[in-house]
Design brief:
Helix content is 77%, strand content 0%. It is mainly α and 382 residues long. The chain has one domain. Helix 2 packs across helix 4. It is globular and about 65 Å long.
Length: 382
Amino acid sequence: MAGNKNAPRVEASSHSSIAELARLFLKLGTIAFGGPAAHIAMMEQEVVRRRRWLDHERFVDLLGATNLIPGPNSTEMAIHIGLLRAGWKGLIVAGACFSVPAMLIVWALAAVYVKYGSLPEASWLLYGVKPVIIAIVVQALWGLGKAAIKNFSTAVAGAAVIVLFFFGGNEILLLFAAGFAVMIVENLRRGWRPPECGLWAIAAGAPALTASGATTAAEPATLTALTLFFLKIAFIRADLVERWHWLTDRQLLDAIAIGQFTPGPVFTTATFVGYLVAGSPGALLATLGIFLPAFVFVALSSPFIPKIRRSPWASGFLDGVNAASLGLMAVVTWQLGRAALIDWFTITLAVVAAVLVFRVKVNSAWWVLAGGILGVLWNLAR
């Protein structure tokens, strides 16, 4: 079939594929607790292990690519998968379906918060959910590790990133350092050849792309200012609390907490802040502002992934980034584990869940549901 050879490869494009994407990412957007590492682990289980839409190596390449562009990583993974599965319609459907359930949940919680001045109690539910999420992430790390750790140099790069992160290394710098280190080592091993110009253009442009997205917003809490502010990559306390006085410190902490204990992308914290500042219109526009760049960045970067993989130099760079991404995911898993495994019950639940997810092929949603129920029952029984 004739077409642009540089366009992203589409795995399927039927109406059934669109419907299947919608069902999958609506489900994940509703039950995917635990932050980006947990979300990506659940996507790996669904699209690699269960549906076999992608193999582990291609999934890891997408993971590495999402770490090189700004924005919410798990949402970008959903958008990448949708684009590969069903083209541009799939891009929109997957990204929207993954984000909208979380947005609606946070929107509702924001309305309750404004009316009653406090957050609903969710600790019992998360008490049992978090250990199960740890088990699911460990399973994903095992599968992705076999694809990402291809040789000695990638193994060293992944291990070095873990060590350097604990010594305060910057995530973006670690990603690029690992990419360039593996690229140089692997090409020296194969025999030195001049790199393609395209690699350096991509590598030189990526840091600028990662730092992009900052915009200037007017001080009054207008809808336009609010929307433009959420085009930024992260929340800046100095702006929200001290400069514009849109929120108090307590409100900002509560907004971050909402993003952490609700399912789906943690960037839906923007929905909560938007509602506090400007009601329902603010919630909608803040959400659009924080997520819209992800669709654009994925659409722009996706055609480069096959090109990078075909080039010996660029492929080495991507291998290093993939190993670094896995190392960072392992660090996040360790941090999540320290927060989730707090007593003998949660440790036991995590161990049992780990055995089950490796040995029993059951949809991850059921494990998450079971963990939540057990957590609630255990707290009621105490």
